[in-house]
Amino acid sequence: MLSLLAATEPSKVPFFIAGGLLAIWAVVLSAMGLRQPEFPFNGRGQQVVILISVVLVAASMTAAVASA
Q: pTM for this structure?
């Protein structure tokens, strides 16, 4: 019975991947911001950083809810 219950549980792999990508993105952003105080250089760069961050957060949240 326990193996049947485990087989119907949703996979948490998508959450681990999305969460890992978000964590890597956070480390990259902090490293770039510490090394270059003028990062992200202009308004377009700022929009790109925000867009990537929003997409990664949304993917992590969606994967977390789907695997709960």
A: 0.83
